[in-house]
Amino acid sequence: MWHLHSSTTVAAALVLTLAIFSPSAQAVWPMPANYSEGKIGVEIKRSDFMIKSNVTSSSVVNAAIERYQYLVEHEYFESPYDFNEGALKTSGYIYSLEVGVQSAQDVFDLETDESYTLEVPIEGKAVISAKTPFGAVRGLETFSQLIVANSGRKIIKNAPVRIVDAPKFPHRGILLDTSRNFYHVDAILRTLDAMAYNKLNVLHWHIVDAFSWPIESKVHPELTEKGAYSVDMRYSYEDVKKIINYAKNRAIRVMPEFDMPGHTFVVGEAHPEIMSCLNKQPNWDKFAAEPPSGQLNIADPRAVSFAFDIITEYSRLFLDLGFHMGGGVLNEECWKEDPVVELYVRDHPGESINSLIVGWFTQMSEKLNEMGKIAFAYEDPVLNYNFTAKNTTILQAWVGEDSVSRIVDKGYRAIASPWNRYYLDCGNGSWLSNFEGNSWCDPYKGWQQIYSYNPLANITDPEKQKLVLGGEVALFSAQSDETTVDRYLWPRTAAFAEIMWSGNIDPNTNTTREAIKVAPRLTDQRFRMVARGIMAGPLQPLWCIRHPEACLHPSAAT
Amino acid sequence: MWHLHSSTTVAAALVLTLAIFSPSAQAVWPMPANYSEGKIGVEIKRSDFMIKSNVTSSSVVNAAIERYQYLVEHEYFESPYDFNEGALKTSGYIYSLEVGVQSAQDVFDLETDESYTLEVPIEGKAVISAKTPFGAVRGLETFSQLIVANSGRKIIKNAPVRIVDAPKFPHRGILLDTSRNFYHVDAILRTLDAMAYNKLNVLHWHIVDAFSWPIESKVHPELTEKGAYSVDMRYSYEDVKKIINYAKNRAIRVMPEFDMPGHTFVVGEAHPEIMSCLNKQPNWDKFAAEPPSGQLNIADPRAVSFAFDIITEYSRLFLDLGFHMGGGVLNEECWKEDPVVELYVRDHPGESINSLIVGWFTQMSEKLNEMGKIAFAYEDPVLNYNFTAKNTTILQAWVGEDSVSRIVDKGYRAIASPWNRYYLDCGNGSWLSNFEGNSWCDPYKGWQQIYSYNPLANITDPEKQKLVLGGEVALFSAQSDETTVDRYLWPRTAAFAEIMWSGNIDPNTNTTREAIKVAPRLTDQRFRMVARGIMAGPLQPLWCIRHPEACLHPSAAT
Q1: 3-state SS class at A194
Q2: B83: DSSP letter
Q3: Residue A421 region, left (φ>0) first, then alpha (ψ -120 to 50), else beta?
Q4: Is A211 an 8 Å CB contact of chain B?
Q5: Which residue in A13, A140, A26 sits closest to A79, CA to CA?
Q6: Taking the CA atoms of chain B, what radius of gyration do you get in angstroms?
Q7: What is the residue range of the signal peptide feature (chains A, B) (predicted)?
Q8: pLDDT at A3 over 50
Q9: Phi first, then psi: what are they for A282, rounded to 5°?
């Protein structure tokens, strides 16, 4: 039982308020699938607290233990709700945390089991049990979030705690564009840390786009020489390996994307001969959604051969099974005006720009399969151009909220990235200097809009629901780089992460999870992230965080 | 003359492009009033470079010299445009900078002369001449911005340089709200640094609002005890003095605002007896623009007496001549339903809520005058309630773009803060947890919208133009705190700063300054700010920064 050493009426009223609005598992984000707790405060025995595992051969487990051992020792997190809380009474000590892992095998892919159980008794040893090293990583994060600082001690407030947890969706990601603006490796590693705090598991690395080619190529070094912004703005092979390893230790896959054949102006810096509509000005808008225009010439066998080179080289560098071949926003006008395309279509009866597009993706998919990869693509080739992909292809739905259901209706697996919910770059004005209007995807996506979106909406067939693998928020970087990445991603991506991990429906009540009820927990997570060095912005005035019932929209109040 | 030691065709083309789009004073932001330059590169003689002044008795000058001496020694700024520039030839050395100041008197107010001249010869000694210490501060900032790094040296590219400079507007500020969320002192000092880099001169400190009372009060300590978010979230007298002094050394005034009688819910935490409509729920929207509702009871003499206490105490703590008494967004319904107000109006024929409002501001203005202050207020009491203020009162126009002209038409001085241009908090979604809509002042204000706004628009009479003292961008902090302040303010506030310093019309061409032409210079400034520790976000993909002509909106292209 709690005894407030310095209780006040205000504090008591506050506790009451929070009790209404926040579930008991206040500190854990995203909400575990199953959670039960008691009322006993226990202290972490700091002087000799140890995390150990039954497996010693897993580098993932070893790295995670080292990380969380450090965190438990050094983190001193006070929840914003505990700002004037006195010393809480504790009845026992937790001396150690044992991490049991069934198999030390550390392959991490879409099939990997991330489940774990966590038990914190009222005295003695806490225990995590997981089938895989990656489940152990998730359990360790949960354990770290149970701990709060209180009067110089570190305590878990509500022992005994029993958590049986597993993610709702296997693909929970962030798309990060490093082509419009560059992010140094440190900013990417920091983002991976933040992802791990929210149990996200895919960094969809949108490495290249029209603007720059920031990654080393050993096969086509001229791409980087002419296409990287500077010698300091390049990812070497060593950088990539470092990022992949850092991610894996946090149970995060790194899926590369080489977006082709659109958005490839930068390839033209080195190879104008394989390009169509290269940097048309000033009416670029006829040829591309944004400047500079340029698409690989799909009628030119040299362009196909170039794309094969790219797929081959980077399929080897990136170890993940997934490889995203792009395919978003193709501009037909670009090819219609290209003399090579024109000639090809004229000389090949039955061929058309549509058939060339289908041919392109057919060849790329086959190449990826040949390289042992699972092909990812944006929805466009399948939904707009009648490309009949292999059913192993995974399509990223981004255009409308009905794209997910359209994809699974065709029998493909889908990841949800609807721009009107998940595009985090929107709502920051135009980046065209002479244009005072808004961004194309205005307005800004508030965390409530992100939280209330259900990737399974309008899909009732359970078999089709299974085809929805998860989702990705996206940060296209026209107006972002390492100076602002935290602010764009967090805490909004934490809101996304809970829906991805826990689903849109609370299984305990069988009702939709509501933003109104989670704001205090999300704020708790936001403050924890700030304490861990992630510059996530506040959701509300702190007064509202403390009085959630007083800061509601009247016409929507419940 | 320049000799590119490692010239390439690409680099040459780049220089040509930039020459079209960026004025020669590329490095200096905001653009000086008069600028001329040569073509000789000179090197800063680093080993013994010294800044000295003829006056030694000005703490402002001494502090500025120390600051810029450090900066010239330690800053190593490479413009993003110079990323692959080779070593540039220089023909001479600058050995020292002499800062001539006519008067060491260091009173800084609306009348203070901030003009300076700066001469950088092709060899020898650079010279700043200023009438006041504050002009010297501006000149030093300009000098620091002329210097760029090149192959391990620090050089000024275009000597001889001659700058004769003075600001267009005397009041160039940022309104920072520290009530919705708290900013630790360090974040405020960092913001003052950033302001100095942009020659802004007013920190309008919106200290209190409905949500918290973060400042120490010696007269009413209960306000802080009950109204500050925590003991760690308070500004002590010492903190305030530190901020004022830090600001003064950067030629920045600190003008406090105590917004009354509206937006005062937090006063009710300690003094509910002097409040009307205190925290009405759930239909707060009838009584306030945002929760929690609460206005000082304008019919209660105790409320007037309380406000006098506040004005008296803080008029002494804050040394600036300006004191902002608030007055924005008054809600009549709040008072209509108040029994004290009702009774008062019933018992006093001829009195009304309008007359009580006028009475309130009349008394507050007189109190401020008595304390030797210049009263500032939002436009509302004068434009909405027929309050006839003394003509020394300065009104902050925030509602519409025509507010400025309406104010000066009445003979008052105005500062421009139109919400649809200058409210930097807008466009980040709602902070009401249960509301998926946008912020009231959507959309986000892009830098182009800020840059294209002319505070003198529709005011043709030169006498009336003189009544427009300048402007303020505003950051109300419902969704901002020290984790995000840089990102909200910069680089957009730099765009604002140039219009404030240099005016909307370029005197050399007598044409409107256009965003399209300044983007490269603004980006230069943004990168310099990042190098100085301000996390200002990027405006565009770096590719567009380097190819400004290629990233224009086609229908608006010039």
Answers
A1: helix
A2: T
A3: alpha
A4: yes
A5: A26
A6: 25
A7: 1-27
A8: no
A9: -85, -5
Instruction: Give B316-341 as a DSSP string.
Output: HH--SSEEE----S--HHHHHT-HHH
> What radius of gyration do chain A's Cα atoms show?
25
pLDDT in tens, A303-350: 999 999 999 999 999 999 999 999 999 999 999 999 999 999 999 999
* Tens digits of residue pLDDT in B41-78: 999 987 789 999 999 999 999 999 999 999 999 999 98
Displacement of CA B474 from its chain's centroid (Å)? 8
Residue A157 tokens read as: 């407030």
Looking at beta carbons, which pairs linking B195-198 to residues 24 or more positions away fall under 8 Å?
Answer: B195/B250, B195/B252, B195/B493, B196/B137, B196/B141, B196/B250, B196/B251, B196/B252, B197/B141, B197/B525, B197/B528, B197/B529, B197/B532, B197/B534, B198/B29, B198/B30, B198/B493, B198/B494, B198/B497, B198/B498, B198/B501, B198/B525
Q: Quick check: A105 contacting B, CB < 8 Å?
A: no
* Dihedral sign of CA atoms A180, A184, A189, A193 in order: negative
In this complex, which of A479, A483, A554 lies closest to B285 when CB atoms are compared? A554
Tokens 């995807």, residue located: A441
Minimal Cα distance from B211: which residue of A? A543
Strands (E), A314-393: 322-324, 374-378
Angle value at C-alpha A269, between A263 and A275, nearest 5 degrees: 55
**How many C-beta neighbours within 10 Å does residue B466 have?**
11
At A287, list the tokens: 């040829």
pTM of the model: 0.94
Distance of CA B395 to the CA centre of its chain: 16
Three-class HEC string of A3-34: CCCCCCHHHHHHHHHHHHHCCCCCCCCCCCCE
CB contact under 8 A, B552 and A229: no
Q: Express each pLDDT in B236-284 by its tens digit.
A: 999 999 999 999 999 999 999 999 999 999 999 999 999 999 999 999 9
How many residue contacts between A and B have a Cβ separation below 8 Å?
Answer: 247
